[in-house]
Write a structure and sequence with these properties.
The complex is a heterotrimer of chains A (about 1050), B (about 120) and C (about 300). By secondary structure, chain A is mainly alpha-helical. Chain A contains 40 helices and six strands. In chain A, strand 4 (about 915-920) and strand 5 form a beta hairpin. In chain B, about 65% of the residues lie in helices and about 0% in strands. Chain B has four helices and no strands. In chain B, helix 1 (about 5-25) packs antiparallel against helix 2 (about 30-55) and helix 2 (about 30-55) runs antiparallel to helix 4 (about 80-110). The longest helix of chain B is centred in the last third of the chain and has 32 residues, at about 80-110. The radius of gyration of chain B is 20 Å and the shape is elongated. Chain C has helices at about 5-35, 45-55, 65-85, 100-125, 125-155, 160-170, 175-180, 180-195, 215, 220-245, 250-270, 280-285, 290-300; one strand at about 60. Classes of the chains: A mainly alpha (about 1050), B mainly alpha (about 120), C mainly alpha (about 300). Chains in contact: A-B, A-C. Chains A and C meet through helix 31, helix 32, helix 33, strand 5 and helix 36 of A and strand 1, helix 3, helix 4, helix 5 and helix 10 of C.
Chain lengths: ~1050, ~120, ~300
């Protein structure tokens, strides 16, 4: 074992030695520096390795062979080994990234760099307060020196402010140290802790000064203007060391000195941290400079970690593990992100579109964004999970709320940025700098993030039960992305089929239904992908991510697995949605609503954990006293996915602008994940006779109004896909309403609707998607006459529409019939009437889409349009076949459904007789007979007309009764634009954009708040010093309640 | 009076120096004056450190005839703060030097020594 | 009863309904003409018109959906007939009402409407679409009071079966829904005005402004089919209201008298009142009829 003193020896010794190497041998200097850094990394790695698996005691190293206070003591325990390893890895990789820069400046740059990394190591290892002070100063001197790698006015003024601020902070630390020594007689932290210094006021002030100065080093809001300037102007390689290395070391220093202080100080950390997390992210909202934005994000994340250190007394679980998970993610993702800003070069986030010329760089950026937000499979996901669970079980819901709120705000700007990178048009032609020494460190950290994420799952309870196999499949798909699309399509379908084969046979009851929708639906909607030529970069991995996420929802035994799947699904669907042409803003709002919803679900899971004490899904039914709140949170969370009124504004754009074969995935299938969530919520509430009656009642009304507004808005759309999207909102409103009834018939209706909505919405979106593909427009008034060109698509869409409208004899009618019975049985007459009203309004858009797209006047430019690709027709007709079968034999689906529901809702089941007639308490219906009667009659009448009118003369398009004239252009006679103008005049006010206005209002005001907050960063170094002094005084006053 | 004892005088002087330095950093617009302010602040700290280690009527921390080896701890002034202050002075010097170097470069870039002229970075 | 016998009885019922429908149509036109101080058609005119239309030779087609439009339309009319019990307590004239309750009938109305709309849509004439869009728009709110009334009935009789609702009203005029649930009846009757689409709710067809569109595009045999449907549909819709609100019919005479007056009610209103614009008529059904419907439910539920 190499003693850790060699870390210092290597760093310092090499720094001195390099001075003797002549300037011309700069390569030798560089190589020696790397070797030195590598050796330092090796030492900490070796120590960490020795601690793994065995509970060896931490090693103390007493320099000069004497015990403190006569010498300085270093400590190399498991935590120190881990932290120094992380710092050294960042240091090493950042040096690689900086190589050409360091070389350009010369050997002095290497020297300062080595000293900086060494100093950070010492800050972690030292147990001596004064030594800590010395290396705080060395760190700040070295950093200020390295600022000058890019020497211009901005770095100079930032560096000066930094130097001023950190020296002052170190001074504060020094005062604290001196007084501690004067009262405690030692500088050795462990001795001081052991003494358990008497709670003297003077001592507590001294400890406070120590603590506050380390906090200040961590750049708490608002005393951090100097820090932001450094993040913004330093070379990205240095920023990554500051964010990844320095902040890590300081966090550890804080963790180290906390035992000296009182319990009260922990609360200071919590509040300072949380306010920083929230405030910093809030101010980031309006930031457009990439590096400053990352600075805000860094400061926010570090604030979160400060607060976690402070939460130690309130958390049963090992706080180090939670911290480590979040720290590693932040360190790697933020360092990687800073390097990425160096690779891209342009610091205006709206110009980042240039990155997508290199999909692998875009992939890295996506990785970092998702890691920072805390998505699975990254370590921070698990860390945050455990943190929220623990806070919940100790009842600190306010903190949970603040943490989740801050995360959401951070997601706003990070995802906006990611959206710019993926989609925003940029005028600049400049290319990005992808020399290997710049990309390699970035790639390594991205890979590490995934690897550590896998490892981290085993650090936490229930994490081990996550099924990583499908994720490995996604990783393989990413690796195979260079293959042509059709091969990847086959692989994806095969993979999904295998997954379905694994999962579906094990399911029973309602889970079986949803497993079917998710996975079989996934396979069907992948089939149209065969029409894609080329490679379709990035499509298959993310599509699989979504389907695998949904599979995990089915598989999940624990809440952790469920949430894991939920977030995975959200991530995948985000990438699917943003692929559309004009999808950038819609994907963002989709992501934000989804995340907001996910956090509500998260909080509710926390309450469930607090109530039940375990992580199993069954814990949801033992909520304890907060059940009402938890179920409300869950319901709202899941309703962001089902797009219920108020939470629906993301849906139309997201579904309508998505690619032709993505729309059916996200509409027919993805929405059902929300339905599954609602079902889980309602089941957890305890079936029919539960104590929570208000929530379902409110949701019932909400569902009904959603149905009304969704359907009405659909009728007024000009965009065919938007029409279908609004229709989905309406249909999901039905489902919400039906489930909220909490009766046997209600659930039968709701789940029947889920199935049929899956089938017909997939048909409709595929059919209309194919039309859009062929005509290259979404506007219905630009379509028309497609029945002649795409007859097979028309038939499928017609049948889909008849099912949707609920016209007998197709299966859609079952929903209407069940609704009547369920509503009368439940007594929800008025909500029910709204539902029926909505159902009739559906005819407006049903007719509109059929007429305006397929009937009416064919346009001149569409005379050569071909039928939809066969790959679009196959899944449509498969689904159509199933619709036909179940329409003729509704008992084949509703009877088993009824028996699945019987254990939950034993009352009020349907009775089926031998002939297939369903009897409810009040009504009856025989689907088969209705089908036969209508079918036979239709054929007979057709035959009658055919006999009478055998050979009608086919007339040309314009041969209509038009006052003896012929219409000049098809456009003038295609009555499709603003079709229901009279209706709009009468009832259009219902669809007025009040809700969108509301959300816009919220976002504007939050952004404006952040904008006015950040005005405190005036740019004046003196102001920043003043902030620091004020911060110390104010925090002191708060913590002591006055002087 | 107690307060006029040497250790208190140095302590108070140090404190006043620290405050003066802070005042200088915050109120002076000239960069050089700000650096001087920092220097005062730093010096104040050093004086405080010295005052902490002082033991009244104590002798230098050298083990010779003047000191009884057994009761040494009660007779000599604490050597540690003195050692520390040396280090702190060295570091303070380094920081001051770097600050001044920055000031020179800033002046070269913008031709001004007024801190309010260096507000390119904000928000 | 064997299926063949059943079919024969059904056909007999259809024959009676069709002929009554034709006659009723003629009578109504006669009455309307007399109100307008005109002579009007002869009462047997429809029997002359139908064969004439069916034998018209010149006939064109705009395509498959256009051709199927009238088939859908007539299927819609006949379908409602098939699911409707005609004579209370008679096993011969309850048609195929065992296949579904009133909900089937309410929703099957759309079958013909949608099919016809699509057929006319393929014709490509702009006025067809104008008419259809108005018709659909108006129909959305027309159905609201009717839905409320039906729910009110379902609460009152604890069934959705038309047969049972009609049977429950037997034994004297005071047992009719008209008297036992006057609010629901009122709501339904107002909503019926929209279903039969006489003035003030006839902007849909706008007989004076839009003489072309479907009625002209669909000529000859097609028009014959549509006329046939019109005759059946008018009667059978009236039968629906009769069964639900006016005690059903114990025999054919009763059916004929009741349906005549039910239908005449809408014609009478139509003759007296001027026409609404579409945005007026849409909103009209959400005013008094809606309130009546809500009261009807409150009345029954409490």
């Amino acid at each position: 074992m190499v003693t850790p003193i060699f870390i210092i020896a290597t760093g310092l010794g090499l720094a001195f030695a390099l001075g003797f190497i002549p300037k011309k041998h700069i390569n030798l200097t560089g190589i020696l520096s790397f070797l030195g850094l590598a050796f330092m990394t090796f030492i900490s790695g070796q120590w960490l390795f020795s601690y793994l698996g065995n509970n060896e005691l931490s090693q103390f190293i007493f320099t000069a062979g004497a015990r403190p206070p006569f010498a300085i003591a270093l400590k190399m325990g498991q935590a120190e080994a881990m932290i120094t390893l992380l710092i050294n890895v960042v240091g090493l990789l950042s040096a690689v990234f900086l190589y050409d820069k360091l070389k350009q400046i010369g050997r002095n740059a290497f020297i300062i760099y080595l000293v900086l990394i060494m100093a950070l190591n010492v800050i972690v290892m030292t147990r001596d307060l004064f030594n800590l002070f010395v290396f705080l100063e060395i760190t700040s001197i070295a950093t200020a020196g390295l600022m000058l790698l890019d020497s211009n006015l901005k770095t100079l003024s930032a560096g000066f402010k930094y130097l001023l601020a950190t020296s002052l902070i170190a001074g504060v630390f020094l005062i604290g140290t001196i007084f501690i020594y004067s009262f405690g007689g030692s500088l050795f932290i462990d001795d001081l802790t052991a003494i358990g210094m008497a709670p003297l006021k003077a001592v507590s002030v001294a400890v406070f000064l120590l603590m506050i100065s380390i906090i200040l080093e961590l750049k708490p809001f608002p005393a951090n203007g100097w820090g932001l300037d450094v993040y913004q102007t330093a070379n990205p390689g240095i920023s990554s060391v500051i964010s990844g290395g320095t902040a890590t070391a300081m966090l550890f220093a804080l963790y180290k000195i906390m035992p000296l202080s009182t319990m009260q100080s922990y609360d200071i950390l919590i509040w300072v941290g949380l306010i920083t997390f929230l405030g910093s992210n809030l101010m980031g909202l309006k930031q457009s400079d990439a590096r400053r934005l990352l600075g805000y994000s860094s400061i926010g994340q570090i604030g979160l970690m400060i607060s976690i250190i402070g939460m130690k007394p309130y958390i049963q679980f090992d706080i180090q593990i939670i911290l480590l998970a979040i720290l590693i993610t932040h360190l790697m993702a933020k360092a990687g992100f800073f390097w990425l800003t160096g690779i891209v070069g342009n610091t205006d986030i709206s110009k980042w579109g240039m990155i997508r010329k290199h999909p692998e760089m875009l992939f890295l950026m996506g990785t970092f964004v998702f890691a920072l937000i805390g998505f699975p499979p990254f370590p921070s996901f698990f860390g945050k999970w455990q943190l929220i669970m623990e806070l919940s079980s100790s009842g600190h819901f306010l903190w949970i709320g603040l943490i989740l709120l801050g995360s959401l705000i951070e997601a706003v700007y990070l995802f906006r940025w990611l959206g710019y990178a993926i989609k925003k048009e940029t005028a600049t032609q400049s290319s990005i700098d992808i020399r290997p020494h710049k990309t390699l460190p970035t790639i390594i950290f991205a890979v590490f993030l995934y690897g550590v994420g896998y490892l981290a799952s085993f650090w936490f309870p229930m994490g081990g039960s996550i099924n990583w196999l499908p994720l490995a499949f996604i990783a393989i798909l990413f690796a195979l992305d260079f293959l042509p699309a059709w091969i990847k399509n086959i692989i994806s379908i095969a993979g999904l089929s295998y997954y379905a084969y694994q999962i579906i046979p094990e399911q029973e009851g309602l889970y079986l239904i949803f497993a079917f929708i998710f996975l079989i639906g996934g396979i069907l909607t992948l089939i149209p992908g065969f029409t894609n030529k080329g490679k379709r970069i990035g499509f298959y991995p993310v599509a699989m991510m979504m389907f695998v996420g949904m599979g995990m929802l089915i598989e999940a035994q624990s809440m952790l697995e469920f949430f894991f799947g939920w977030e995975l699904m959200t991530a995948g669907s985000y990438f699917l949605i943003i692929r559309g042409h004009r999808s950038m803003p819609h994907a963002l709002s989709y992501m934000l609503f989804s995340l907001g919803g996910a956090y509500l679900i998260f909080a509710a899971f926390g309450i469930a954990f607090a109530g039940s004490g375990n992580f199993l899904m069954s814990g949801l039914s033992t909520m304890g006293g907060l059940g009402g709140i938890a179920y409300t949170l869950l319901a709202i969370g899941f309703m962001t996915k089902t797009a219920s009124l108020g939470l629906h504004i993301w849906l139309p754009g997201a579904h309508a602008e998505a690619e032709s074969d993505v729309s059916p995935m996200v509409s027919a299938i993805l929405l059902k994940a929300g339905v599954l969530g609602l079902i889980i919520t309602f089941m957890a509430m305890g079936g029919p006779n539960n104590e929570y009656t208000t929530l379902p009642y409110v949701l019932g009304w909400l569902g009904a109004i959603t149905a009304l507004v969704g359907n009405l808005a659909a009728a007024f759309q000009e965009d065919a896909k938007r029409l279908l999207a609004y229709s989905s909102i309406g249909q999901l409103g039905y489902i919400l309403f039906a489930l909220a009834m909490m009766t046997h018939l209600g659930w039968l209706t709701g789940i029947g609707y889920s199935l049929s909505h899956f089938a017909y919405k997939a048909i409709l979106f595929m059919g209309i998607g194919a039309v859009v593909l062929r005509l290259k427009t979404h506007n219905m008034f630009e379509m028309g006459g497609m029945i002649k060109k795409m007859p097979f698509t028309f038939i499928a869409v017609l049948m889909g529409i008849i099912t949707l409208a609920g016209i007998p004899p197709l299966i859609g009618f079952a929903g209407k019939w069940l609704f009547y019975n369920a509503i009368i049985e439940k007594g929800w007459y008025f909500q029910g009437t709204i539902i029926f009203f909505a159902g009739i309004i559906a005819f407006l858009y049903c007719f509109r889409i059929l007429y305006a797209v397929f009937l009416g006047q064919l346009k001149d430019e569409h005379r050569n349009v071909k039928e939809a690709p066969i790959w679009y027709l196959i899944p449509q007709y498969l689904l159509l076949l199933s619709i036909m079968i179940f329409s003729a034999k509704p008992e084949w689906i509703f009877q088993p459904l009824g028996s699945m529901l019987a254990p939950i809702f034993p009352q009020g089941q349907l009775v089926w007789n031998e002939g297939g007639t369903a009897f409810s308490d009040i009504g009856y219906w025989n689907g088969s007979w209705v089908m036969y009667i209508i079918g036979i009659m239709f054929v007979m009448i057709f035959a009658w007309l055919f006999i009478q009118n055998r050979k009608p003369k086919k007339v040309k398009q314009f041969n209509i009764v038009y006052a003896g004239e012929k219409p000049e252009r098809p456009e003038t006679t295609h009555m499709a634009y603003n079709m229901y103008s009279g209706y709009n005049k009468a009832l259009g006010f219902i669809t007025a954009n009040g809700i969108t206005t509301f959300w816009n209002w919220i976002s504007e005001h939050v952004t404006a708040m952040g904008d006015s907050l950040r005005k405190i960063y005036s740019g004046n170094g003196q102001t920043y010093v003043f902030h620091i002094i004020l911060f110390v005084i104010i925090v002191y006053l708060f913590s002591n309640g006055g002087f | 009076m107690e307060i006029f004892q040497l250790e208190y005088i140095t302590l108070i002087t140090g404190g006043l120096l620290v405050l003066t330095g802070l005042w200088g950093i915050i109120s002076q617009k000239n960069l050089i004056r700000m650096v001087i302010g920092f220097s005062l602040f730093d010096t104040g700290l050093h004086v405080i450190m010295i005052s902490i280690g002082y033991i009244r009527n104590g002798t230098a921390p050298i083990l010779d005839k003047a000191v009884d080896k057994v009761n040494a701890a009660g007779q000599i002034v604490d050597p540690l703060p003195q050692a520390l202050v040396l280090t702190a002075i060295v570091i303070g010097l380094g920081v001051t030097a770097l600050m001044l170097a920055y000031v020179v470069r800033l002046h070269k870039e913008k031709g001004s020594l007024n801190i309010t002229n260096f507000k390119d970075l904000k928000w | 009863m064997s299926i063949i016998a059943k079919l024969l009885w059904v056909l007999l019922g259809l024959f009676i309904i069709l002929n009554w429908g034709l006659l009723m149509g003629a009578l109504i036109r006669k009455i309307v003409a007399r109100v307008g101080k005109r002579v009007g058609i002869r009462w047997y005119q429809p029997w002359l018109s139908l064969p004439m239309l069916y034998s018209t030779r010149s006939s064109i087609s705009h395509g498959v959906m256009y051709y199927l439009g009238p088939v859908f339309r007539l299927s819609g009319g006949v379908g409602i007939f098939l699911f409707m019990p005609l004579i209370v307590g008679s096993p011969y004239f309850d048609n195929f009402s065992f296949a579904g309750d009133v909900v089937v009938i309410l929703y099957f109305q759309f079958f013909g409407m949608l099919g016809m709309a699509l057929g006319a849509g393929e014709g490509g004439h702009p006025y067809s679409t104008i008419g259809i869009s108005r018709g659909l728009a108006q129909f959305t709110t027309v159905e609201v009071p009717l839905t409320l009334a039906v729910i009110s009935l379902a609460i009152q009789y604890d069934t959705l079966s038309i047969k049972e609702i009609a049977a429950a009203q037997q034994g004297g005029i005071t047992n009719w829904t008209l008297f036992t649930n006057p609010l629901a009846t009122a709501a339904a009757l107002l909503s019926m005005l929209g279903i039969f689409r006489h003035a003030p709710f006839n902007l849909v067809q706008a007989p004076n402004e839009i003489p072309i569109g479907p009625p002209t595009e669909y000529h000859g045999t097609y028009l014959g089919v549509l006329r046939t449907n019109g005759a059946i549909l008018h009667v059978i819709e009236a039968v629906l209201f009769m069964n639900l609100f006016f005690g059903g019919a114990g025999n054919w005479i009763e059916l004929i008298i009741k349906t005549f007056f039910i239908y005449f009610f809408t014609v009478f209103i139509g003759v007296v009142f001027p026409r609404f614009r579409i945005e007026q008529s849409v909103v009209w059904f959400l005013k008094v009829p809606l309130v009546l419907g809500i009261l009807a439910i409150l009345f029954m539920a409490i």
